[in-house]
Amino acid sequence: MNAPTPNMSDTLARILADKYEEVRERSAAVSLHEMEKRAAAADAPRDFTRALCDAVAEGRVGLIAEIKRASPSGGLIRDPFEPATIAQAYEKAGAACLSVLTDGPWFQGDLGHMVQARAACSLPVLRKDFMVHPWQVFEARAMGADAILLILAALSDDQAQELEDVARSLDMAVLAEVHDRRELDRALGLETRLIGVNNRNLKTLVTDLGTSDELIPLIPADRIPVGESGIRTPDDVRRMCRAGARCLLVGEHLLRQADVEAAARELITALD
């Protein structure tokens, strides 16, 4: 299990170096075989993709509402941080799905946050982390995740295919995240219908909604584009819709509001 060796000056490379070490340590404590057994014993997954499609069919924004305590770019985002309460607020607002950050060193996340959020609502939940090894996919399912994120910038084609195959074998959805045209072309080689376009450059952490303007129109009609990062206002939602994305992943903006339910509802109903 060896980490890639890109220019270590960028943020993503440093996160990945930590992640490979974390997975080495944790998989030594709980074997892959044991994690496979735990995944097989978990309750059936909720249908993440269908939840998004149903929201769009009903005329709403398919919002994947994110739960995270902190981020490298934004620092501490919400304190006190109560995943279950936030999950319930998002569900009341009409969110289609949840995304929960589980990375500890960089986002102050924890798998317990995901477990608490999922138990508090009926929404399908994406484990938001830097997935680099099948062990993590089995762990995600064992802990109740219904979907995983695959960041194409962090993975080779073989890695992405292997992780998707494991997720599909567990009836989990996959959100393939891209940042440029080359990554989009690679993502379209996967089976998943969910293609996330991240407006944040993971090397510089700079956000530019123009990334979605450029890439979303290139996504084939049989796939489901998901706009990610930098989406804060109803106008931003409408901009993503004009580009071709009616599904969005939004976190930091919502979590910085005193009333996360009202903030989420404002985005969900932006197309009314």
From TrEMBL:
- Which CDD domains does the record match to this protein? IGPS
Which top-rank group of organisms is this from?
A: Bacteria
Q: Indole-3-glycerol phosphate synthase domain location, by residue?
A: 12-267
Pathway where this protein functions: Amino-acid biosynthesis; L-tryptophan biosynthesis; L-tryptophan from chorismate: step 4/5
Task: State the InterPro entries in the record.
Answer: Aldolase_TIM (IPR013785), Indole-3-glycerol_P_synth (IPR045186), Indole-3-glycerol_P_synth_dom (IPR013798), Indole-3-GlycerolPSynthase_CS (IPR001468), RibuloseP-bd_barrel (IPR011060)
Q: What is its EC number?
A: 4.1.1.48
Asked if the keyword Ion transport belongs to this entry, the reply reads no
The EC category is lyase
Which controlled-vocabulary keywords does the entry list?
Amino-acid biosynthesis, Aromatic amino acid biosynthesis, Decarboxylase, Lyase, Tryptophan biosynthesis
The UniProt catalytic activity note for this protein reads: 1-(2-carboxyphenylamino)-1-deoxy-D-ribulose 5-phosphate + H(+) = (1S,2R)-1-C-(indol-3-yl)glycerol 3-phosphate + CO2 + H2O
One GO MF term on file is: phosphoribosylanthranilate isomerase activity
Q: Which GO terms describe its biological process?
A: L-tryptophan biosynthetic process
The record's comment on protein family reads: Belongs to the TrpC family.
* Protein name as it appears in the record: Indole-3-glycerol phosphate synthase
Species assigned in the record: Falsiroseomonas stagni DSM 19981
Q: Which gene encodes it?
A: trpC
